[in-house]
């Protein structure tokens, strides 16, 4: 049986006592914490509650790790576009190369690999950079939603003809009106057989001439206060 303890957070802004009295005040903090632990819920399980050793003054705060002042954005946006494109191309090439036995007339939708197997294809340096700036390989693959479908830890080439494959996308990745044809079609540019959809059926631009300016309302930009 587990007991949930209420979480109490005390934040002090400045010291209201002499530094030399620290030991005494620390003792008071420990007493306070211990007094909270004899609440009715906790007392039921008191025998299982580890007593706080008063000899080790900082025991109750041990292991506390404050968050960084500035939180790092880890959504691949910090990575150079050509780096991301190279990784996408490298992974897609391998997946497309796995389609033995498919007749040449069919559009090659490639094979599938686990995220771990995909990681095995990439250089250590690339993986480390992804982890640092992007939240990892899986995030990069998911962010490149146009090209990949990640399902149950496996990576597939997305087949835009397959309604099921495009329906699994959540509302937030669904096409906003005004976003059509505002980005180039990866398949049109990179797939050996091109895009399986006709120009008019593909949400992405088939070549620069097919590109349209975005009519989406601009994302709210940060308001700067001076
Ligand atoms: Zn297309």
Provide structural commentary.
The radius of gyration is 28 Å and the shape is elongated. It has 3 domains: 19-61; 74-172, Arc Repressor Mutant, subunit A (Orthogonal Bundle), CATH 1.10.10; 175-215, no CATH class. It has 226 residues and is mainly alpha-helical. Strands 1-3-2 form a 3-stranded antiparallel beta sheet. It has 8 helices and 3 strands; from the N terminus they run αααβαααββαα. The chain has helices spanning 22-36, 40-44, 81-96, 115-121, 124-134, 137-143, 163-167, 186-190; strands spanning 112-114, 148-151, 154-157. Strand 2 (148-151) and strand 3 (154-157) form a beta hairpin. Bound molecules: zinc ion (ZN). The site of zinc ion has 8 residues, from helix 8. One of its GO terms (cellular component) is cytoplasm.
Which features does this protein show?
Arc Repressor Mutant, subunit A, 8 helices, 226 residues, three-stranded antiparallel β-sheet, binds zinc ion, 31% helix, mainly alpha
CATH class of the largest domain: Mainly Alpha
Report the strand count: 3
User: What's the architecture of the largest domain in CATH terms?
Assistant: Orthogonal Bundle
- The average pLDDT score comes to 79
User: What small molecules does this complex bind?
Assistant: zinc ion
The description of the largest β-sheet is:
3 strands, antiparallel
Helix and strand pattern: HHHEHHHEEHH
Strand content: under 5%
Estimate the global geometry from the Cα principal axes.
Answer: elongated
Number of contiguous helices: 8
Organism: Iconisemion striatum
Protein name: tRNA (uracil-O(2)-)-methyltransferase
Subcellular location: Cytoplasm
EC number: 2.1.1.211
């Amino acid at each position: 049986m587990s007991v949930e303890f209420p979480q109490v957070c005390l934040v002090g802004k400045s010291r209201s006592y002499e530094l030399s009295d620290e030991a005494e005040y620390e003792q008071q903090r420990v007493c306070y914490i211990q007094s909270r632990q004899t609440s009715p819920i906790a007392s039921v399980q008191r025998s299982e509650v580890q007593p706080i050793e008063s000899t080790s003054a900082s025991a109750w705060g041990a292991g506390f790790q404050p968050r960084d002042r500035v939180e790092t954005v880890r959504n691949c946006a910090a990575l150079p576009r050509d780096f991301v494109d190279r990784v996408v191309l490298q992974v897609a090439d391998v997946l497309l190369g796995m389609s033995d036995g498919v007749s040449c007339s069919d559009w090659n939708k490639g094979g599938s690999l686990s995220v771990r197997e995909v990681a095995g294809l990439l250089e250590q340096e690339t993986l480390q950079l992804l982890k640092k700036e992007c939240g990892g390989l899986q995030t990069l693959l998911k962010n490149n939603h146009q090209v990949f479908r990640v399902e149950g830890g496996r990576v597939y080439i997305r087949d835009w003809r397959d309604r099921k494959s495009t329906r699994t996308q959540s509302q937030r990745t669904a096409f906003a009106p005004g976003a059509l044809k505002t980005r180039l079609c990866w398949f049109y540019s990179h797939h050996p057989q091109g895009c399986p959809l006709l120009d008019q059926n593909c949400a992405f631009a088939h070549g620069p001439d097919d590109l349209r300016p975005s009519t989406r309302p601009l994302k709210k930009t940060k308001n700067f206060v001076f």
